């Protein structure tokens, strides 16, 4: 399934966005997020961005106060996922203009919408910023 | 009703209000949220759709980020879904996709909503429902909506079509029959030139191919075209992943794709694509030398890069290459070893794995030495990581790479002295295992165990308790190799053993018992020999034992003879005098006396056994030694008879037990296990069985008869402080002389480096340099023409290997059907093995089996020593044990072979088709498909 979940977590370990591509119960999600956040936030800049966790990998990247964590299957290409994270940030940047944690907090729906444009069923379907943002802009106009 | 509802909607808090409130609340987050939830529960019942949808939106937020249950709102979500307004639909679809799952009761009510939206003219509505479907589709939804998906797959709106393509994956998974309908259109999309659709299609095929590659082999030409033509790195990476799965199945295909892959590797600037090419080459095109060289060159670039990410991935790629091309690792060994001291624990672990991959029979000693030294300096986690990997590498395949077991055993002893060591359990298992399997190493093993036992400092580390139990067991079981049994006894009974958990104390007592019996026997023999002067010279006592003993138990005697033969005078050099025996008996009484009051039954019982034995023999022995001639003859004989009896009981050799041993025992007639146990289950159905790790040893001779003899039982429960410990403490104060000499313990504790090593960060790079230098020679695989001594025999048992069942995959079956159309024979996996498979595989296995068997037998026979009676016996026993299960398992193995064949034919069917082209029946269907592309 490629990507299993995408999380955005701030420095304090609070989840700001969570998107799962497989069904997990609330308890499983709580445990998973707790473990991952503990594991990844303890790491520093000199360490690599890949962490093995249970039977999959986590690829993460930090932008200012926000960590982007993506859980992927073991044979997924780590560098491509890092590029994907960067693409996601750039897309949000283009939409919000200098995106920050608050933008995502208050426009969670839009952030989800962008993600849904980019990833379906755990695989990346769209990588062009323009294509991702057009429907959102259309919807903004219409409402 | 409408009044409050109106008020609600007028003063309803929006999501933004909720988030702001959550940030500014003063009453605590939980309290605030539960208040908000209360509001939401009220609002969501509103008849006004915008109130309802806002409530749902807030609820989704709380569920997604604060883990609050929203299952109560499933029906409300459906209601919002039926709203004509797009913004409401959006909220509803989002809520549904995060809260619905296969067992949601209202799931089926959604079918019509989805169908309506899927055929809507508004492409965004279609897209919303497709996205939702990709998250929640179950069998029913997938089946019912297949026609709509089919239509959308050729929609002229690209935005819709790419999403329909992405949804197909989930639909196929849930409802394989849909493949028959949709697959052709999916393939058409593969030929589509639009980049948007293409990346979605390739993503779908990548997932499909990863589960069942063989079905997609016929599509290779399309994938190849994409590999050559596409400029999109995302798509290329996915296509490479597909080829990584397909290439091993069809050698001609592998040859064909190597060139374009290498091209990409040379040309592209994108690291992600380079890495994917490297990974494809090292996983699937490993036979192609030039490609592998190119890939390893790229890996090297990764390794020297500053970016830790690339370093990590480079190391990972190396570890994939390592099994087939070890040169790639040795070429880069400098980087690998330097990375052992990287700032990143993940990188350290990767490089450790690589170093372990370099280990071979010739350099295992050097590498282990370097690593153990390094472990001393590293942080606790990594230290244990190192120890763990040394242990697992060395024990792999029944200690395959170990030649010098004396060295290995002393290494084990050394490892357990590393302050951070937490591998007590693993070392315990290996000590015992080696003791049982490798006869020649026992003297050294006893020596190592003695060093461990005698060190009072080790008793304080609870991680080592399991290890100490092994040391105690070894020194009891093989006490005849001990240089000084009396010293061993003191070590086993030292006061600090009160720190051990009860289960291990019990093992200590049992071992002390064995040592005691051995000492007494030695003493008796000595006395006997001097008294009767049948043996005028002072031969080692054990030899005399062998003579007086022969009729009684020849096995044990030869044991002893072996010991004295090989290690002659060093063994049991401390002659046991009358006085020392008296001291010994007193020591036992003093040390075990307090344990009679122990709360642990096991300890109490064993202590009582030993003391009973002491009582029984003490009187006789001492009297006989004081009195002369007449009386002593009779009384001494009585005592020695008891001692001999006990010795006989202990001296049967224990061997390793095959994990499948239990299965080989045939059920005695008239024993009806199931019925009896059924009753038992009824009686104690609700009583929890305490889980205990039990360790069982069986002697190879008894095993056949169906007696399994459990000697050690290790339970992990800490000992409660009780009266007896305080008694013991007092006792210790009074009898200070039974402490081990304090000088010795100090000396040993000086060897300990302090837990917090002052030289850390500063020196770590120096250390690394040292390491590099140190291993410079040791890592180059050099040949030692002759080993100083031959590898000792390691007893192995035949393992029954388990074959996983090959499972029927309906999805692949369906794909096959579609791809191969209406041909007469459908080569589904289950049918392709109709032909008689060559029995060579099975024969080979059988042959290997017998070969190893013969080899081990030969080793046993030509071992040189003339004490052949026991040896013969041994090998006979082995033979019998080897044979009987083989007969018994013959049928079973046939079955297994069949299964294996089925499986392999399933996996490599295509591959074989190339080789066995002369067989017309098998693959007449598939063969025409591939040459299209290859020619």
From TrEMBL, chain A:
<feature type="domain" description="AP complex mu/sigma subunit">
    <location>
        <begin position="3"/>
        <end position="141"/>
    </location>
</feature>
<keyword id="KW-0472">Membrane</keyword>
<dbReference type="InterPro" id="IPR011012">
    <property type="entry name" value="Longin-like_dom_sf"/>
</dbReference>
<dbReference type="GO" id="GO:0012505">
    <property type="term" value="C:endomembrane system"/>
</dbReference>
<dbReference type="GO" id="GO:0006886">
    <property type="term" value="P:intracellular protein transport"/>
</dbReference>
<keyword id="KW-0813">Transport</keyword>
<dbReference type="InterPro" id="IPR016635">
    <property type="entry name" value="AP_complex_ssu"/>
</dbReference>
<keyword id="KW-0653">Protein transport</keyword>
<protein>
    <recommendedName>
        <fullName>AP complex subunit sigma</fullName>
    </recommendedName>
</protein>
<dbReference type="GO" id="GO:0005737">
    <property type="term" value="C:cytoplasm"/>
</dbReference>
<dbReference type="InterPro" id="IPR022775">
    <property type="entry name" value="AP_mu_sigma_su"/>
</dbReference>
<dbReference type="Pfam" id="PF01217">
    <property type="entry name" value="Clat_adaptor_s"/>
</dbReference>
<comment type="similarity">
    <text>Belongs to the adaptor complexes small subunit family.</text>
</comment>
From TrEMBL, chain B:
<comment type="similarity">
    <text>Belongs to the adaptor complexes large subunit family.</text>
</comment>
<keyword id="KW-0677">Repeat</keyword>
<protein>
    <recommendedName>
        <fullName>AP-3 complex subunit delta</fullName>
    </recommendedName>
</protein>
<feature type="domain" description="Clathrin/coatomer adaptor adaptin-like N-terminal">
    <location>
        <begin position="29"/>
        <end position="615"/>
    </location>
</feature>
<dbReference type="Pfam" id="PF01602">
    <property type="entry name" value="Adaptin_N"/>
</dbReference>
<dbReference type="GO" id="GO:0006896">
    <property type="term" value="P:Golgi to vacuole transport"/>
</dbReference>
<keyword id="KW-0653">Protein transport</keyword>
<keyword id="KW-0813">Transport</keyword>
<feature type="compositionally biased region" description="Basic and acidic residues">
    <location>
        <begin position="847"/>
        <end position="861"/>
    </location>
</feature>
<dbReference type="GO" id="GO:0005794">
    <property type="term" value="C:Golgi apparatus"/>
</dbReference>
<feature type="region of interest" description="Disordered">
    <location>
        <begin position="777"/>
        <end position="935"/>
    </location>
</feature>
<feature type="compositionally biased region" description="Basic residues">
    <location>
        <begin position="904"/>
        <end position="914"/>
    </location>
</feature>
<dbReference type="InterPro" id="IPR002553">
    <property type="entry name" value="Clathrin/coatomer_adapt-like_N"/>
</dbReference>
<keyword id="KW-0472">Membrane</keyword>
<dbReference type="GO" id="GO:0030123">
    <property type="term" value="C:AP-3 adaptor complex"/>
</dbReference>
<dbReference type="GO" id="GO:0006623">
    <property type="term" value="P:protein targeting to vacuole"/>
</dbReference>
<feature type="compositionally biased region" description="Basic residues">
    <location>
        <begin position="781"/>
        <end position="790"/>
    </location>
</feature>
<feature type="compositionally biased region" description="Basic residues">
    <location>
        <begin position="868"/>
        <end position="887"/>
    </location>
</feature>
<dbReference type="GO" id="GO:0010008">
    <property type="term" value="C:endosome membrane"/>
</dbReference>
<feature type="compositionally biased region" description="Basic and acidic residues">
    <location>
        <begin position="888"/>
        <end position="903"/>
    </location>
</feature>
<dbReference type="InterPro" id="IPR016024">
    <property type="entry name" value="ARM-type_fold"/>
</dbReference>
<keyword id="KW-0333">Golgi apparatus</keyword>
């Amino acid at each position: 399934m490629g990507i299993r979940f995408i999380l955005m977590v701030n420095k304090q370990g609070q989840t700001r966005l969570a998107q799962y591509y497989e069904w997990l119960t609330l308890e499983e999600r709580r445990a998973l997020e707790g473990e991952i956040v503990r594991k990844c936030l303890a790491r520093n800049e000199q360490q690599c961005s890949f962490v093995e966790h249970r039977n999959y990998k986590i690829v993460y990247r930090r932008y200012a106060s926000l960590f982007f964590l993506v859980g992927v299957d073991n044979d997924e290409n780590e560098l491509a996922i890092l590029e994907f994270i960067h693409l996601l940030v750039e897309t949000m940047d283009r939409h919000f203009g200098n995106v920050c944690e608050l933008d995502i907090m208050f426009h969670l729906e839009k952030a989800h919408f962008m993600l849904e444009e980019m990833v379906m069923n755990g695989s990346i379907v769209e990588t062009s910023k323009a294509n991702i943002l057009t429907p959102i802009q259309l919807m903004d106009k219409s409402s | 009703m409408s009044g409050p509802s109106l008020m609600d909607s007028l003063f309803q808090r929006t999501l933004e209000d909720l988030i702001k409130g959550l940030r500014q609340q003063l009453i605590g987050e939980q309290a605030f949220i539960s208040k908000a939830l209360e509001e939401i529960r009220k609002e969501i019942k509103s008849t006004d759709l915008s109130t309802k949808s806002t409530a749902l939106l807030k609820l989704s937020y709380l569920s997604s980020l604060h883990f609050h249950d929203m299952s109560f709102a499933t029906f409300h979500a459906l209601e919002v879904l039926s709203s004509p307004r797009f913004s409401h639909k959006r909220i509803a679809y989002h809520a549904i996709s995060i809260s619905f799952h296969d067992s949601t009761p209202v799931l089926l009510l959604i079918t019509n909503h989805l169908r309506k939206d899927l055929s809507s003219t508004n492409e965004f509505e279609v897209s919303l429902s497709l996205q939702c479907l990709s998250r929640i589709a179950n069998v029913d939804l997938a089946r019912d909506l297949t026609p709509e998906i089919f239509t959308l797959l050729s929609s002229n709106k690209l935005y819709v079509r790419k999403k329909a393509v992405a949804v197909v994956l989930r639909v196929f998974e849930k409802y394989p029959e849909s493949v028959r309908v949709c697959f052709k259109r999916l393939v058409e999309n593969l030929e589509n030139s639009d980049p948007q659709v293409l990346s979605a299609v390739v993503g779908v095929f990548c997932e499909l191919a990863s589960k069942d590659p063989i079905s997609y082999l016929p599509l290779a030409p399309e994938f190849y075209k994409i590999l050559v033509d596409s400029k999109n790195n995302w798509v290329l990476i996915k296509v490479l992943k597909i080829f990584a799965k397909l290439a091993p199945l069809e050698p001609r295909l592998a040859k064909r794709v190597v060139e374009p892959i290498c091209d990409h590797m040379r040309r592209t600037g994108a690291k992600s694509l380079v890495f994917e090419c490297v990974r494809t080459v090292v996983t699937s095109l490993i036979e192609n030398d030039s490609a592998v060289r190119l890939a390893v060159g790229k890996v090297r670039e990764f390794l020297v890069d500053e970016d830790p990410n690339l370093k990590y991935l480079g190391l990972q790629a190396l570890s994939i290459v390592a099994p087939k091309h070890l040169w790639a690792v040795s070429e880069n060994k400098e980087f690998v070893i330097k990375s052992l001291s990287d700032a990143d624990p993940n990188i350290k672990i990767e490089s450790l794995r690589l170093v372990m991959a370099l280990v071979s029979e010739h350099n295992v000693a050097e590498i282990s030495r370097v690593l153990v030294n390094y472990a001393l300096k590293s942080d606790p986690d990594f230290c244990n990581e190192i120890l763990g990997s040394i242990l697992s590498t060395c024990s792999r395949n029944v200690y395959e790479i170990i030649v010098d077991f004396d060295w290995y055993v002393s290494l084990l002893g050394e490892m357990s002295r590393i302050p951070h060591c937490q591998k007590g359990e693993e070392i315990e298992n290996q000590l015992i295992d080696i003791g049982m399997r490798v006869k020649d190493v026992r003297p050294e093993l006893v020596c190592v165990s003695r060093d461990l036992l005698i060190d009072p400092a080790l008793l304080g580390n609870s991680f080592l308790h399991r290890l100490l139990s092994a040391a105690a067991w070894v020194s009891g079981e093989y006490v005849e190799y001990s240089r000084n049994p009396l010293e061993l006894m003191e070590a086993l009974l030292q006061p600090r053993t009160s720190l051990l958990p009860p289960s291990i104390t019990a093992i200590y007592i049992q071992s002390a018992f064995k040592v005691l019996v051995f000492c007494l026997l030695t003493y008796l023999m000595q006395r006997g020999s001097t008294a009767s002067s049948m043996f005028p010279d002072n031969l080692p006592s054990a030899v005399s034992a062998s003579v007086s003993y022969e009729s009684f138990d020849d096995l044990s005697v030869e044991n002893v003879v072996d010991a004295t033969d090989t290690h002659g005078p060093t063994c049991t050099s401390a002659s046991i005098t009358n006085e020392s025996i008296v001291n010994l008996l007193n020591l036992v009484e003093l040390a075990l006396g307090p344990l009679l009051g122990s709360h642990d039954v096991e300890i109490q019982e064993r202590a009582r056994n030993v003391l009973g034995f002491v009582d029984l023999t003490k009187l006789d022995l001492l009297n006989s030694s004081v009195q002369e001639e007449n009386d002593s003859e009779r009384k001494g004989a009585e005592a020695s008879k008891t001692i001999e009896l006990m010795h006989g009981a202990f001296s049967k050799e224990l061997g390793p037990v095959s994990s499948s041993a239990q299965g080989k025992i045939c059920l005695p007639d008239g024993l009806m296990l199931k019925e009896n146990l059924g009753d038992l289950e009824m009686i104690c159905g609700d009583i929890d069985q305490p889980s205990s790790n039990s360790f069982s040893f069986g002697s190879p001779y008894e095993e056949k008869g169906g007696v399994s003899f459990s000697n050690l039982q290790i339970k992990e429960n800490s000992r409660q402080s009780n009266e007896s410990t305080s008694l013991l403490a007092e006792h210790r104060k009074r009898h200070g002389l039974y402490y081990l000499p304090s000088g010795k313990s100090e000396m040993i504790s000086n060897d300990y480096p302090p837990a917090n090593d002052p030289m850390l960060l500063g020196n770590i790079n120096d250390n690394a340099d040292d390491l590099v230098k140190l291993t410079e020679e040791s890592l180059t695989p050099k040949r030692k023409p002759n080993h100083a001594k031959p590898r000792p025999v390691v007893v192995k048992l035949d393992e029954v290997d388990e074959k996983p069942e090959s499972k029927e995959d309906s999805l692949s079956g369906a794909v096959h059907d579609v791809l191969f159309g209406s041909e007469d024979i459908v080569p589904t996996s289950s049918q392709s093995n109709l032909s008689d498979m060559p029995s060579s595989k099975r024969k080979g296995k059988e042959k290997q089996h017998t070969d190893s068997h013969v080899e081990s037998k030969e080793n046993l026979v030509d071992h040189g020593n003339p004490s052949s009676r026991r040896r013969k016996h041994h090998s006979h026993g082995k033979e019998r044990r080897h044979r009987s299960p083989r007969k018994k398992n013959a049928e079973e193995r046939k079955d297994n072979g069949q299964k294996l064949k089925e499986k392999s034919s399933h996996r490599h069917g295509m591959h074989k088709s190339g080789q066995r082209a002369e067989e017309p029946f098998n693959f007449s269907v598939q063969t025409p498909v591939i040459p299209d592309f290859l020619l």
